[in-house]
Each structure stands twice: as structure tokens, then as C-alpha cells.
Amino acid sequence: MSNSSRRFYLVPYLAWIVLFVVAPIVLVAYYSFFDVEGHFTLGNYAKFFTPVYMRMTLSSFWYAFLITAISLLAAYPAAYLLTRTKHKQLWLLLIILPSWINLLLKAYAFIGLFGTYGLTNSLLEAIGIGKQQILFTDFSFVFVSVYIFIPFMILPIFNALEEMNPTLVYAARDLGASAWTTFRRVIFPLTVSGVKSGCMAVFIPALSLFMITRLIAGNRVITLGTAIEQHFLVTQDWGMGATIAVFLILAMAAMMLLTGNRKRGAVNARKK
């Protein structure tokens, strides 16, 4: 294929990137320099570094980390078991299938399950524990978030485990390594790329959650995503909402660059 043909086929891709990635980011950055009245200002950036928004930022990162960590702890054993079972593709499809359902529908389903008269409280009452306040708590927020994001953690780990050479595991066991040592020294290092991909696929969207915080946590959990929604839809302070979005974009880009550099370093090390 000639260079001119390659450039021609790149046009749709570049047009998509410019229209739906670059242009929205530039527009968000542009609005961040204006106040409610439409005057140019740098006050939005100064306001972001006040204690209120700093606490909100720390809260967002903490919940994103918690959701990612719990998803990883549940997803890795699940992915490992999937590679050892029959009809693994069917089981993987059943795990991924809920991700095809609309997020709003899943949120309302959990409202019904965790509500005062929902199935969960009915079971608790039947076994003698009694009704509990499950909805509008940190627990319900983290639980529902993990449920929503866990397929995106399982899939890359499953792929990494499938690509791993099983003879390396057999060799470690033949040389006397225990199951834990084999996992720690052989399996996990060979699948760490899948773990990184899964963590990024969960952490980045979890950092900007807003619908789940409103419907499941009842606004008891305040994140940067919630603040953006409030500024754009309630207070109409688009400048402040755009400023928060700029910092979220920068944080996500920094994490992606750090992960990408490590991957490139690993590839270069292998070549050497």
C-alpha cells in the first residue's frame, strides 16, 4: 500500500479524533476561563484549590481507588477460574452481558433491591436480622459501582491469562515452587499488563461518576463528577464546571501516560 493511500485511510480517523476528542477538550478548556456572567477570569482555577474542592478531589480519588481495588480482588480469581473451566467463552459472555444493559436501568434495579421494601431487606427480615438502611450509603455506592465496572476488569485479565504460556507454571511447580510462590513469581508478573489495563478501565470512569452518586448514594457521596453536574445543570456556573473537568482530564491523561511509558519501557527492555 502506497503512502498516499495510507494517508487517505487516516482521514476518517483523524476527523473523528478532531471532532469528538480534541474539539470537546478545547471547548471545555475555553469555558473554564469565564465566570457566571461571561467575563474572562482565572478565578475558577484559584477557587478549585480551596479546601472544599480539595476535599472533593481527595474523596473522588479515594472512592475510585476503592472501587478499583475491590474490582481487582474479585476479578483476578474469577478470571483465573474462567481459564480453567469448560465453556469459558460462554461464562465470559454471561459476565459481560450485564454491561450491555443501560446504566440507568441497572441503577433503578438496585434501588428496588436495596430499598426499604426491597428483596434484600425482605431476606434480612426473614432470617431475623431485620430491615437495614442499605440504600443511600457508602456500601451501596461502592457495591453497585463494582458490579457495573467489574466486567471491564475481568476481560483484560482473562485475556492476559489466556496468552500466558502454561508450561512456565508447570516448570515452576516441578522445581518445587508452592502455589503462592508460583502465582507471585510467575503468573502475576506475566499478567500484570492485563491488571494495568483493567485498573485503568475501571479507575478512570470511576473517578468521574455522578449518576450513581445521586441515585444510589443519595448525594451522600460527593465526587468531582457530581460537582460538574451541579455546576452545569443547577448553578449554571459552566466556567467552574469546565475547570473541574479540565483537572479531571489532566489527571486521567497523566495516569494514561505513566502507564504507557511503563509499557514502552518494558517492550524496550525485552528488545535489548
Automatic annotation (TrEMBL):
The keyword Cell inner membrane does not apply. The keyword Transport applies. It is found in: Cell membrane. Coiled coil: none annotated. It is a multi-pass membrane protein. The chain crosses the membrane at residues 12-33, 61-83, 90-114, 134-158, 198-218, 238-258. Its main location: membrane. One of its GO terms (biological process) is transmembrane transport. It comes from the Bacteria. Keywords: Cell membrane, Membrane, Transmembrane, Transmembrane helix, Transport. One of its GO terms (cellular component) is plasma membrane. PROSITE patterns: ABC_TM1. Residues 57-259 form the ABC transmembrane type-1 domain. Belongs to the binding-protein-dependent transport system permease family. CysTW subfamily. This is Spermidine/putrescine transport system permease protein. It comes from Paenibacillus endophyticus.
